[in-house]
Amino acid sequence: MNTSSLTRTLLEHLAENKHLLIDALLPRHPKSRLARAMLGLDRHRYQSVKVAKHSISTLLCRLRKEGLVASMGPKSKTLWKITRKGRKRLHDAPSQTFTIPDFELPPKDGIIRLVSFDIPERERRKRDWLRKILFASDYHILHKSVFIGKRPLPDEAMEDIIMMGMESYVHIVSIDKKGTLVPR
Fold this sequence. Notes:
- The chain is α+β, with helices and mostly antiparallel strands.
- Helices cover 40% and strands 16% of the residues.
- It is built from seven helices and seven strands.
- The protein is elongated.
- The mean pLDDT is 77.
């Protein structure tokens, strides 16, 4: 994720959630899973929690200097919020991502599914959208473009994949029996 998309992601998160406390994203917590995924904190983007915190803090300080966000509270527990100017910038800027539909997740059925994709760089927005859909569907990263989950993807997501012309780039494999390795 480049700096401009991370900036947009932070502004979108602040616009939706009113506030951001960096320490609430670090360490991992189930309630912050989607926000962490969108910020790239679980994809080995950063070498350590300390580096991640520093990078996000630096970006937020730059956004504060531009007047897009404001901070309040003591330095160790700074609470960040979006300003009117930040909302205007977010509203005026063309969306660089596809919206994530609000869909009901199918129940887990115990069948392991691998979703592998190889979407070209020129279609990066589609690739980022797909990753967000997979995270929202409770899938986890195995590799950069391989996810694993125990429920089918929502029908709406499958229809959107086809509508956006990504069906030749996305492969879904179901595994109904686990294998074992027996030491000799």
